[in-house]
Fold 2-dehydropantoate 2-reductase.
Amino acid sequence: MDIAVVGAGSIGMLMGSYLSESGLDVTMIVRSDEQKERINEEGICRVHEDGTGSVVTVSAVTGLTEAATAKLVVVAVKYSDLKTVLNEFREKEIRTPLLFIQNGIGHLNLVEECEFPHVAFATVEHGALKSDHRTVHHNGVGNLTIGERFGDKNKFNIIEKASNDRFPVIRHPNGEHILLRKVLINCLINPLTTILGITNGELLTNPYGHQLMKELYEELMQAFTEMRKELPFTAVESVCRNTARNHSSMLMDRLAKRPMEIETIVSATIQKAQLTQRELPLLKNYERILLAFDEKVKC
């Protein structure tokens, strides 16, 4: 086996389909027997924006045993599930190179504490929506950016085989840097779309939403001045444009009455700014509103 993908949500299935389509031997590690059976029997169905689709054959299993035999493991579970996966990796003494794809930046310290030998982090700017156990809609093309953190960077070369016009793969020398860039994008899109109840694209077409995003951008750039050149406001607008029809993951969680990833996206960014004595009052207010939404779900 070339690659094991842990987690078969929207991003996991999107990645699994493109990796397999490139000729790599891919196994999806899924949570339920029902999803395992659907994928094994019918493959992953990927639907593109123009309505065309592809059905890609992959294997699916439950349990993390297969991770030990892969050349590379892609960990695409939500932040809330990551601790469980990391504990199992440590118990099984997994030494396979690990590529982590989670929203936010809170997972950085969790992974580093485990001291795995070969680690990289990745960010995804694609629009993707899982509609059933084996179907993922590719609603916007972005980049998969991989940044090494520990170990031999050549261990992650295998994933570049999947790079194409619909699924471009980019390498970056600094895993922490790409996580910071992505979490700032998350902070600019996720809270506002969730609070306003709008798609990513409506942050461009709704003048009030657009103004709120510009004001929040200026606040973040004052705290993270080194990122202004690499993350101009036009780049944030481009992400909104490329994923215009998508609801952010945070809004999807709110609509489904699931806990939102506030801690790893919003709270972690506020805490990182505070390390350099920078305050983020706008983002702090949005954090309170989001926490109020989460509290309502608990009730």
